[in-house]
Design brief:
Rossmann fold, alpha/beta, seven-stranded mixed β-sheet, four-stranded parallel β-sheet
Length: about 350
Amino acid sequence: MNISSKSKKIGILTAGGDCPGLNAAIRGVGKTAIVEYGMEVLGFNAGFLGLINSDYMELKEAQLSGILTLGGTILGTSREKPYKLVAEHGEENHKPEKIIETYKKLGLDAVVCIGGNGTMKTADLLSKEGLNIVGIPKTIDNDVWGTDVTFGFDSAVQIATEAMDRLHTTANSHQRVMIIEIMGHNAGWLALYSGLAGGGDIILIPELPFNIDLVIRNIEKRYEDKKPYSIVVVAEGIEHPKGQSAASYMAKTIDDRTGIETRETVLGYVQRGGSPSPMDRILATRYGAFAAQCIAEGCFGTMVAMKKNELTTVPLGEVGGKLRLVEPGLGLIQKARKMGVSFGDEE
C-alpha cells in the first residue's frame, strides 16, 4: 500500500568506505524526491551513527546543487555496524532500538542506505524491524551481489589505469619489473579491469589461485623474448604471508629468484578519492533517482540494481552476506589469455 508522496519525509545516509559518486547519489535521491515527489529530505551524518544519535541535517534543493562532481560525501560516513554487538553481547547493545526510536520520532517514511555489502546487510536487518528501507549499491570493488555494476568502480578503474600508464615508462626506461597493488580483498574486478586497461602482463586476483613458479617462469620468458620489462598487477587479497603487503611479497620474491630489479607501488586510498568519472556520475544519479521512485511507489526492503543496463530492484534479504566475485571462466579472462596475459595459474 502506497503512502501519499506529498506527506513523505525520507532520510539518506552513506555508510562504509567512501568512494567517488556518493554525492551524485545523494543528489539523485534528494533532487528527485523534492522536485518530482514533493518529499522532505533529511541527511544523516556519519552513516548509521547519524540514525543512532539522531544527528541529521535538512537537505533542501539548493544544498544539493554543486555536489555532483565532488568526491567523498557531504554527509560523512563511518563503518558503524549497529547489529554487530547484538550477536556478541546479546541485549547489551541498544543501537538498533535507538535507530528505530529516531526513525519514529522524526516521522520518517523511509531511509535510503547507500553503501556496500555490509551496509546492505544492516539495511536488511532494519527492514526486518519494520522500517521502510531502500538500498543503493556502491563500492570500488564492484562486488555487491545482485547488480551488474556499482558506482565508484569506473572511477577507481580510471585512477588505477592512469597509474599503470605512468609505471610503463619507468619500467621500460629501467628494464624493471613493476608490481602495482590494487584494492580488492575478496574480489578481483578492479585489478582485472584496470590491469587489462593498463596493459598489465601478469594479473593476479583472489579468485584465481596462482603458482609463484609459473609467475617467475613467465617473467623470465619475457626477458628471454627480448621484452625488457614487465607490469605485474596484484589485488591486495591474493595469497601472501601476513605482515607484509601483497606487492612487497611479490617484489621481493621476484627480485630474489630472478635477479631482475623489481619495484612495488601500492595505490591504496588514492583509488577511492577524488571526483567521480562521468560514467559514475550518471550511474549514481540513475540509482538515486530510481531509489526515490521506489519510495514513492512503496517498494521497500529492496536494493536498486542494474541488470543488463536496466534499472530494477532485488530484495535486501538476497544481498547481505553475499559477494559478487569474478568467475574463473569469465569471457574477459579467456580473451586476455589469448593475448598473452598471464594469471599465474597456467603456462
